[in-house]
Protein 1
Amino acid sequence: MSFDLGGYLAERRRLVDQALARFLPPEDAYPPTIHEAMRYSVFAGGKRLRPILVIAGAEAGGGLAQDVLPAACAMELIHTYSLIHDDLPAMDDDDDRRGRPTSHKVFGEAMAILAGDALLTLAFRLLAENFAESQRQAVAPARLRQILAEIAEAAGTFGMIGGQVVDIQSEGKSVSAETLEYIHTHKTAALIRVSLRSGAILTGAPEKVLEAISQAGAHLGLAFQIVDDILDVEGSLEQLGKTAGSDRRKKKVTYPEHFGLEVSRSRAKSLVEEAKSALAPLGSAATPIMALADFILERKS
Ligand code: GRG
């Protein structure tokens, strides 16, 4: 029987969006501007890939979406903070994101910086305090501590921030394939991998499942960024919700720039195949992640 990925994504997006609406402070909470800015970027759209990966990781470990919604939302908040800050004039200086003017265009630079900071801070509050609310039973403290540490590492200087630093420092330069791989695995793949892992850890998945999921997460994270680089060459503003061709204009180091489009496409494809091979021993528990792997390869936005 074929897997209905569209239905799977729609149902989980709905759960995530409802939970985000509950967890984010209301727009009129004092001081309202910051809460408006936080909600503006979170509800601007977005595929909700990272929270859905948290849920898929939980399901692969035998858990339910309901059990991991705070962690799923936390990953979306961290991701959204990174987009807001990445778009700032001091970084990529972008005008559009998720089909809307960027945060700093609407709220000004100071408020966009603070909205990113506030989303990151709220993410860790959700992780630390909200589990008991959604759980059938409270999460074991050891599991909670593990995901807090892993998510902090993946978002920090040995993860996403480290990747962003090297990305910025590499602009306009000719870098080695190793540096390019460092940027992509740290800037993007680290959050994707830890999303899958967090769901599985929270539901107490055994080591064998965690190992398979970690390998798949690393491969899928890299594939995701390679596809992102390809879409920046081939996509349009309407499809992407942000200006296409910006990598080339900003002299970013990308897979297509370094290896050409053909090699980039085939590398993304083989990474997705490797991810699926790692997941194969998990059987039907990993069906949603396998389908998400195809989605990552075939996406157009
Ligand atoms: C500013 C600390 C800091 C980090 C920035 C992640 C990042 C590092 C910058 C965002 C810009 C960028 C190109 C990131 C690579 C990851 C990526 C492809 C983000 C877009 O993710 P999607 O396609 O976005 O999942 P939606 O809007 O669908 O959630």
Note: The chain has one domain: 5-298.
Protein 2
Amino acid sequence: MKDIFILAIESSCDETSMAIVKNGNEVIGLSTNTQIPIHELYGGVVPELASRMHTENVLYVLDDLLKKTNFKLENIDAVAVTCGPGLTGSLLIGIEAAKVISYLYNKPLIAVNHIIGHIYANALTKKLNFPALALIVSGGHTNLVYMKDNYKFEILGGTLDDAIGEAFDKVARVLDLKYPGGPNIEKLAKNGKTTYKLPIPMNNQSMDFSFSGLKSGIINLVHNEIQRGNEINKEDLACSFQNIAVDEVVRKLEIAINKTKVSNVIVAGGVSANTYLRDKITELTKKYNINLGIPDLNYCTDNAAMIGAAAYYLYLKKDFSDLNLQPQPNKSLN
Ligand code: KG4
Ligand code: ZN
């Protein structure tokens, strides 16, 4: 079969990213402009600034990618773009860029769900096998999903309040850490101990998650200690939080493994970059003799390569969009 080259664009939040992906599993090139240094000044993503930065950067990122790969746009087979979920103004820039390329070069346009992109980031690391359980742990989502086959999603559980990445970011803020909080909590936690007693999230057998009680517990604890004039051991608090949050995710994953009896697990989303989480899930899947997929670190957080990987299956099904494609900020998995 002929090789398929997809130009992929991701701009759902604060990264302007483009990639050329071959056959859904090989990255020919990836170019990403991150806006973290700008949003860091405000302690989180400012949507208006994000869309403005995407507009400023989108052509530079494309130019960089084409120069780096020596690829010509006329040689791509399709152009794929994240259509949601995400920030409307941010999504719009990527979508408009993709439409222009699709129109000018007469190439099919493929709309990709951002969360599905995170799942297919795994295909860039190793071959996906089904049926599989996908654990999604990102800034906006926490889900357990049963996948009977490619693009067949059955949601087993989700968060009732905050996503796990959101909890990392909010706890980081009360510890005066910079945005994005997850990697900074992880760094602090490395030198800490689990000395703090914190609320344990929903201790039940459901496959849903809840992190807001844990988050509020930490916010209250920090405020109380400040009022009493006590010092907070930030390393210990970061370590206590990280372990409780991750252990909860791993506990729910184990419930799902027992219920579904799958022999494949894949992990997706920004929090899958966390070493403690990677180690705990590796340990759990070894116990059950399960084939585990976790994306390489550079494909855990938002990037266009994962969008190119997910788009490949839509290309094979000829599941194309037209130039009326619009951002879908609240798009769900199905
Ligand atoms: O998947 P992602 O890049 O964006 C969304 O689609 O939401 O995830 C971003 C989230 C942020 O909340 C960030 O703090 C978290 O992933 N994150 C981490 C780590 N790296 C990124 N959380 C914990 N440990 C990390 N090493
Ligand atoms: Zn993401």
Note: The pocket of KG4 (ligand 1) is lined by residues 13, 118, 138-140, 165, 168-169, 180-183, 186, 269-271, 273-274, 301-302 (CB under 6 Å).
